[in-house]
Structure formats: C-alpha cells, structure tokens
Amino acid sequence: MNTPKSIPVVDEYFDTRRSLKDGSYPVKIKVYNPTTQEKRFYNSGIRMSQTEYDLSTSPKRLSPELRTKRETLEAIKAKARNAIQSLPAFGFKPFDEQFLAKKEIRQGNALNSVQEAFQQKIMAMMKEERISTAQGYEQTLKSLNKFARTTKRPSLEKTLFADIDADWLQAYQKHMIQNENRTTNTVGIYLRNLRTLFNERISNKKLDRELYPFGKYKYQIPATRNVKKALDQELLSKLYKARPISPYQSKAKDFFLLSFLLNGINVKDLLQLRHKDYQEDRITFVRSKTKNTTKTHQQPIIVSVSESAKEIITKYQTTPKGKDDYLFPILSKEDSPVQIHNKSKAFTRFIDQHVKALARELGIEEKVSYLSARHSFATAAIRSGASMELIQTSLGHSNIKTTQNYFAGFGNDTHDDLAKTIERILIV
Asked: Cα separation of 262 and 373, whole Å?
C-alpha cells in the first residue's frame, strides 16, 4: 500500500534542453517515485515557447489557445494521479499500463495529433510506393481540416484522436453532404481512412478501445453504393467493331480492349510490363498494388494471350534492347515511383477521354471508362462459366492469400480456354 511519504509525485517539466524546429519546447509530465528515487518523463504532446510557458504558469488571463494547453496539461496530471491512486502498490510497470492505456501518450515519443498520424501514414505509403493510397490520405486530411476550419473547430494539428467522437463524425458527414455537396460515397472513402488510423493506434496500444467512435450504437460509416461498371456482350462487341475517327481514339480503344483481353489488367500494371514478362504466349506479373505489401509468397498472375491481344501488343510494343525494357513506350527506366504513378494516371485519363467519346458516337449511353474493362472481364468470365476461384486468381484480388490455394489446381489449358472464351465475347 502507498503511504503518504511513498506516494509518487506528479509534476510537469518544461524541457528546454533542445528546441523544436519552430523554436518551442516540449512540456513533459514527470513522475517521481520517492521510494526508489526513480523518475520518469512522459510526453504530453504540448509544446510552448519560453514566453508562453511563463504566461501559462502566471495568474494572468490566458489566450484561448494557451488556456487550452494549460487545461490539457492539468487534465493529464490529474489522470496520472488517479492512475497512481488506483494501484494497491506503486510500480512504474503497472502505472504505465494504467496511465498509458487511457491516454494517447507514450513514453519516449511525442503525442500524435490526428494530423501528425495522417502525415506519418502518408510518408509510410510513399515509402512503399503506394502513391494512390498516399494521395487518398492527403485528400482525407485536407477535407477534415476544411471541415474543422469551416465549423470553427480546432484544426487536426491540435486535435487528438480522443477528441473525435460519434458526434464529431456525424457533424462531418452532415457538413460534407449539405455544405460541400459531396456524396455519401466520398464521406465513406474519407472516413474509412480515418478509421484505419484509429484501428492502428488501438492495435499498437496507443489508444484505449473505449475511445473508438465507430461501430454499432456509435457512428457507422455510410455504405458505398455499388455502381454498375461492366458492359454487356452487345456493347463490348460494338466497341470492338467500331471504327475510330482519330489515332487517339484508336489507341484508347486498343488499350481498353487489351485490358479486357488480359484479365482486366489495370493501367499501372499494364504499363509496367517488361519484355521478360511476355514469354511463350503468356504474360506473368505481380500486381503493383500488392507487390510492396505482401512480404512473402507473392503469387504471380498468369495471363494467356489470345490472338486479338497479340495483335494489339505487336502494334504498340517497343523494340527491346534488353529483357528489362518496358513492353510499351509510355514509361522510362529512369522514372521514379511518383512519375510512374503520374504517367499511369495521365494514360488512364487519355483512355477514358477518348473511349467515352467513341462510346458516345456509337450511341452507348452507359458510362464507359478504363475500369469498365476490368469489371466487364469479370462479369463476362462468370457468365461464360468460369469458376469463381479461377476468376479471383485471374484478377489477382488483394485477398490473394485466399486464392493462392486454388491457383495450383488450374493448368495452362484452363487459362487458354478462358482467354479464348473472353476473345469470343468480342467476335460475335
């Protein structure tokens, strides 16, 4: 049991040993155990200049921002004292378990604001060359900060995860739909990114699960509305037989059909194919989407190349100086991951623009884009009798571990039959 003389002392420590980049200093929580004469410091996430700290400890009237910092510090110290009182006998290990589990603070590292967590996630995604994912988190951060600014809430730089509750999320959804004229789909995309950060913090024991604002009886992210993207056999055949009115339309049509014929391969994977990937009427590759996230046992996608696909490849392929050269002349070996991402996006826009124009000229009212080729492949394959397992393998879904076990059972003849079946969809 803790006696009065053995009760640990909780105080704050203004650490002026080294300033931060903005010239401020961190304010830490100091816990001193008189029994062992041991002391530990815990970062509060609060930082102030020398002038601000002096003001915050004076009886003078404080600015709203400085008052918030002072109140936050006092609240954290109160939490620490409560954690100490709840222990039958003090020890730093049980204290840490009690104190750190209830707060978003960690010994040895600065307290992460929501903005800092987003920035760390963005940097991690960039490091993994997952550029689209990084940009998605950037867009989410921008949207959440705009909401905070418009509704006069603290910016995400000053917001902790514990500050975001179901009411905050509901207010964001209402603002996005009523004031920003955005769809529930967009709201769902952005808030799923935020939810991922919450889950990561809880998994890493940086946040108590009780502070999780998502789920039943809390805030539920609106369900994404499924939009039909697949084209039926008649429309696909119409596109295949169409005569483009310009070289741009011709190229866009060819690459759209090539994606359909090559298992719905996406633009980034298609453009990153190298001559060594195209051997003996087969293309073998690992999806760029999973290449940097799956650590071991990456399952390559094998695509049998039909005669129609061969014609398109032959029309556009480069003359290789080596097997590592790109199959198509869109990317360069010197391109960085960001440049590859940007060129892939630009080429997707090029295809979408000209395929849509071609579809309009053909009287096709359905929305047509490069993504339609992938969905159309999957739909056509199912309707043609291909097993769901083969289609999952052919598409290289992100849940590749589940489909790996099935893949071993499919020989090349099965892939050849699927390629011919897909080709016959066009040649009616």
From this structure: 10
Tens digits of pLDDT across the chain (428 residues): 455 567 899 999 999 988 887 888 989 999 999 888 889 888 887 889 999 999 998 888 888 778 888 888 888 888 889 889 888 888 888 888 777 754 444 433 335 688 888 988 998 888 888 888 889 999 999 999 999 999 998 888 888 888 899 999 999 999 999 999 999 989 999 999 999 999 998 888 777 788 899 988 899 998 765 555 778 888 888 899 999 999 999 999 999 999 999 988 989 999 999 999 998 889 998 887 766 654 455 678 888 999 999 999 999 999 888 889 999 999 998 988 889 999 999 999 999 999 999 999 988 888 888 888 888 887 777 677 766 667 666 766 555 333 333 333 344 554 666 677 777 778 76
Q: To which residue do tokens 């598409």 refer?
A: 395
Q: How many residues does the chain have?
A: 428
Residue position matching structure tokens 């080729």: 373
Dist CA 258 CA 322 (whole Å): 23
- Residue 178, number of CB atoms within 10 A of its CB: 9
- Nearest alpha carbon to residue 353 among 278, 256, 228: 256
